[in-house]
Amino acid sequence: MVSSKNWRKDFRWTKGEETAYVAASRRPCGHTRTKGEFDAKTIAQRSWVAGGLRVIAATLTMFFNGRGAAQQSASENVVAGVFTFNPLQVALLQWYPANLTTTFAVGVGPTRAAFDGANVWVTNTGVDNSNSGSAVTKLRANDGAVLGTFETGEGPVGLAFDGANMWVTDYAGNRVAKLRASDGAALGTFAVGSGPGWGIFDGADIWTSNYLSNNATKLRASDGGVLGTFAVGPNPSGLAFDGADIWVASIAGGYVRELRASDGAALGTFAVGSGPYDVAFDGVNIRVTNNFSDNVTKLRTSDGAPLGTFSVGRGPYGLAFDGAHIWVANSGSNSVTKLRDRDGATLGAFAVGSDPQGVAFDGASIWVPNHNGNTVSKL
Predict the structure, then answer these.
(1) What is the spatial distance between Cα 308 and Cα 160, in angstroms, rounded to a whole number?
(2) pLDDT at position 153, please?
(3) Interatomic CA distance for residues 5 and 1, integer angstroms
(4) Which domains does the chain have, with CATH numbers?
(5) Which of these ranges, 54-58, 218-222, 226-230, has the smallest mean pLDDT?
(6) DSSP state of 16
(7) For all residues of the chain together, what is the average pLDDT?
(8) Rounded-to-integer distance, Cα 376 and Cα 348, Å
(9) pLDDT at residue 36 above 50?
(10) Segment holding 256, helix H or strand E
C-alpha cells in the first residue's frame, strides 16, 4: 500500500524486485541489456517527447497568434508545414509536396464540381460548351468510383449542395434542378433567370447567377420558391457566400457586386481584373479569378478594398479554398496553380487534363473537371 507521506520509499525496489526486473529484461539469447542500450531507448523516448512538445507549442502559438506564427515557431522536422494543412490531409499523408494526380472518366464536357460530404458531383455540358450534355456524374470521393449518372435538363453547368440535396443549374433550360444527394432522385425543377451558370447555398436559400438576363435569383431551399430576383451587372458568373452576403462576379462589367443575403440589397460594387469569372471566400477575404488578365484579385470582405493581385496561369476559371491555400484552374495552360492564402505566394503549378474549369475541395483532395478531356483530375 502506498503511503501518502513517503511515496518515494514506498516505490523503492526491493532486492527481489530488482532481480526479477533484470531477469525479465534478458533477451532470448540470455544477454542482459546494457546500460548503453537503456540509454538509447531513453534518448529515443526523450526525442519523441521533445517533438511532441514542439507540436504542442506550435499549436498553442497558432491558437493564440494565428497560423502564420505557428509556421514560424514550429521546427522544420515537425511534419514540415503541417499547420498549412487540415488534419484530414495529414491523416491521409497528403502533407508532402508530391503531385499525385489521378484521373477519372466522367461525361462529355465536364465543367464544374461540388462535394456533398462523401461524394463529388460533376456537371457535363457537352462538347465546346454546346450544352449538348444533359447529365451529372456522381463519384465516390475516396476512390473515384462512379456511383451514378443522372439526367438534369438540357445543359447542366453549376452545382450547389444544401446539406441534403444537390442543386444543378440548367443553362439551356433556364431552370435549376434539385436532386437528392443520397440517390440522385429528382425532387423538382424550378424556373430562374436566363442562362443560369452558377449556384451557391447560403445556409437557407439557393442563389443562381443568370448569365443572359444579368441578374441573380434567390430560391428557398425547402421548396424552390422564388424569393427574389436582383440586378447584378452584365454577364454575371461566379458566386460566393461570406456568411452574411453574396458576392457575384460580372464578366462583362469587370467587377464583383456584394448583395446582402437576407434581402438582396446591393451593398457595393468593386472593380477587379479583366473578365472576372469565379469567386471564393477564404474565411476572411474574397478571391476572384480574372479570366482575361490571368490573375486573381483579393478583396477585403468588410469593405471590398483590394488587397492584392496575384498572377496564375492562362485563362483562370474556377477556384477553391482548402483551408490554407487557394487553388486556381487555368483553362489555357491545362494546369492548376496553388497559392498560399495568407500572402498569395505561388507554391506550385500542377498539370491536369485539357481545359480545366471548375475546382472543388473534398476536405483532403482537390478535384478539377477537364472540359475537353471528359475527365476529372484528383490532386
Answers:
(1) 28
(2) 86
(3) 12
(4) 15-84 (no CATH), 102-378 (2.130.10.10)
(5) 54-58
(6) H
(7) 82
(8) 19
(9) no
(10) strand 255-260
The sheet with strand 266-271 has its strands ordered as 236-241, 245-250, 255-260, 266-271
Q: How many CB atoms are closer than 10 A to CB 78?
A: 17
Give me the residue label for grid cell 495552360: 333
φ, ψ (nearest 5 deg) of residue 15: -60, -40
Contacts of 322 (CB under 8 A, 6+ apart): 86, 89, 361, 366
The answer to whether 288 and 278 have CB atoms below 8 angstroms apart is: yes
What whole-number distance in Å separates Cα of residue 291 and Cα of residue 107? Answer: 25
What is the distance between the alpha carbons of residues 170 and 124, in angstroms, rounded to a whole number?
A: 11
- Give dist(CA 251, CA 149) in Å, integer: 31
Cell 440548367 belongs to 170
Residue with grid cell 431551399, as numbered in its chain: 221
Record the pTM.
0.77
Instruction: Determine which of 101-105, 115-119, 210-214 has the lowest per-residue pLDDT on average.
Output: 101-105
Instruction: Mark out the alpha helices in the chain (DSSP H runs).
Output: 7-10, 15-24, 35-65, 67-73, 87-91
Q: Could you tell me which of 216, 225, 304 has the C-alpha nearest to residue 265?
A: 216
Q: Quick count: other Cβ atoms within 10 Å of Cβ 354?
A: 12
Q: Where does the pLDDT of residue 101 fall: very low under 50, low under 70, confident under 90, or very high at 90 and above? A: confident
Residue written as cell 540509454? Answer: 39
Q: How far is CA 187 from CA 72, 100, 207, in A?
A: 50, 37, 17
Q: Give the pLDDT band (50/70/90) at residue 126.
A: confident
Say if residues 137 and 110 touch (Cβ distance below 8 Å): yes
Residue in the structure block whose three cell numbers are 457566400:
241
Question: Which amino acid is present at 130?
Answer: S
Q: How far apart are CA 355 and CA 369, in angstroms?
A: 8
Stretch 340-358: mean pLDDT: 95
Whole-angstrom CA distances from 216 to 67, 71, 202, 249, 275 are 36, 41, 13, 11, 18
Output the nine-digit C-alpha cell for 211.
448569365
d(CA 373, CA 334) in angstroms, rounded, equals: 10
CA distance 288 to 268: 15
